[in-house]
Amino acid sequence: MSKHSIALLFFLSPVAVAEPAVQSALLPAVTIASEHRFNGLSLTDRNPALQLSLHYWRSDGWYAGVWMTNVNFLDAHNTTLEVDTYVGSEVRAGSWRVKIQGLYSAFDDHEPGPAYDFFQAKVEGSRTCGKTTLIAGVKWSPSGSFGAGRIVQMQGQLRYALTPWLDAEASLGRGFYARSNERTYWQTGLHARWRRMHFELLYMGLRSDLPLCGFVDWCEPGFVGRITLATY
User: For the chain, which domains are there?
Assistant: First the structure.
């Protein structure tokens, strides 16, 4: 057999290629915030919040985690705790990163009456061009918190890297509620990084089509500061 034939057989023969091993990591973090806001609405009666998280990351795009914070709704059940559990996957679609996620948010409120717990599905895409990152997403809940019914939310965010350690950001969202007031929420601010510390100063608020917050100031715009110690 000629050398050329041997070379051809070697080239055509199946070659076992080992797939790279999937890497993973557990990433804990702790945050101290001047207050906890969700879609512009204060959930701590404008008081500080301590927030803990544990994120499980995999190199194949899958991830999961748990996040918790204190809350204060001034309700008869004296609700004090929110725990969010989530799982999702991130894939590439051309120049976009697409994230699909399911989240369950649980609270320590008690029966009787509507519960605060809810499930939320999210599809989000992000694209970075130079120093600018664009993020757009849609969220859906079949039954929102405290009897709000079906919820659809659309949100867009823009980030710009001012320096390697400082970003500016702005976001705008709109929520459509089957049994509650439609509302627009927004925020803008700065995000700085130093070693494993993250610092955020944000100005945020919301506007509802009809009165939403009654005699409390949870809907009023305000500054929110956060300091996070993370392992990433």
Answer: 20-230 (2.40.160.40)
